[in-house]
Design goal:
By secondary structure, the chain is an all-alpha fold. The chain is built from ten helices and two strands. The N and C termini lie far apart (71 Å).
Length: 289
């Protein structure tokens, strides 16, 4: 009872965790051990992981651009992706010959495909843009894994990407006020990007020390390059999605959307780390050990 007949404000309800957040967390917890195992084990498990991720990514890109009125060849493109990944793994030199033959085949396909009379160039371009994005960039995961202590480098890129994506999402929701690029992705903020980059850098620093990397210049470079690559990859995929009018790249991962919604930053981080390692090794005669 309220003897004073005064109206007291009711306690504010506790905000419940959204279903999307729960789905994101559960999906990440289920996939993380499998991915870490494949990276550490290397060999065929890692090859299968990269190949599967590349093919699914290519098909997601193809499905998206179809919303924009283009007709990429999913069959030829998927075959090209497999050639790039497996050829890289086997160090197969004639891969360029096979890839050239595939390019010639795609020219004939593009002329006979639906809508070819209206956009022959668009059909052909989207086919090979997807191949380069999903197959060409991700094939660097094979190259990076084969370097000395390569699995540590792949895990650094993965940990840094995951931390940057996840922390940017939560920091942006909590404190985000200033839009990063509203014309491309209205949900991304400067606060989220900076917070994600800082936390990603700390995780990369801790993981580098745990992996025995002692060169401070090497570590600082990774702390800068990986978060920047993640942001660039995220913005690039957001631009593609916005240009064709889709929200997510797919629906295969509950809470995340498509595979590309989860690994778009990783796709840019992997080649960035690989070439950075080569540059450091060349200029500083430094080895990761």
């Amino acid at each position: 009872m309220n003897p004073d007949n005064k109206k007291y404000p009711s306690p504010s309800p506790v905000k419940s965790v959204s279903k999307e957040t729960i789905y994101r967390t559960v999906t990440s917890l289920l996939l993380a051990p499998l991915l870490i195992f494949a990276v550490i084990w290397g060999g065929i498990p890692f090859l299968l992981l990269v190949t599967l991720g590349s093919i699914v990514s290519y098909l997601e890109i193809s499905n998206m651009v179809e919303h924009g009125g283009f007709f990429p060849s999913k069959l030829l493109g998927s075959f090209a992706v497999i050639l790039l990944i497996v050829g890289t793994y086997l160090q197969f030199k004639p891969i360029l010959v096979l890839f050239t033959l595939l390019l010639i085949s795609s020219l004939f396909w593009a002329r006979r495909s639906p809508g070819a009379l209206n956009d022959f160039t668009g059909n052909l371009s989207t086919t090979f843009l997807g191949v380069f994005y999903a197959g060409g960039l991700l094939s660097h995961a094979i190259l990076l894994r084969e370097l000395p202590t390569g699995y540590q480098l792949v895990l650094l890129a993965a940990f840094g990407t995951w931390t940057a994506d996840t922390s940017a999402y939560f920091v942006g929701r909590k404190w985000g006020r200033h839009k990063l690029i509203p014309s491309v992705s209205p949900g991304k903020t400067w606060e989220g990007a900076v917070g994600g980059s800082l936390l990603s850098g700390l995780v990369i620093l801790a993981a580098s020390i745990a992996f025995g990397i002692q060169n401070i210049y090497y570590i600082i470079g990774l702390m800068v390059i990986i978060p920047l690559a993640v942001i660039l990859g995220d913005i690039t995929m957001s631009s593609v999605k916005r240009s064709v009018g889709v929200k997510d790249t797919g629906k295969i991962l509950p809470g995340h959307g498509g595979v590309l919604d989860r690994i778009d930053g990783f796709i840019f981080a992997i080649p960035s780390v690989y070439y950075y390692v080569l540059i450091v090794a060349t200029l500083m005669d430094f080895k990761v050990n």
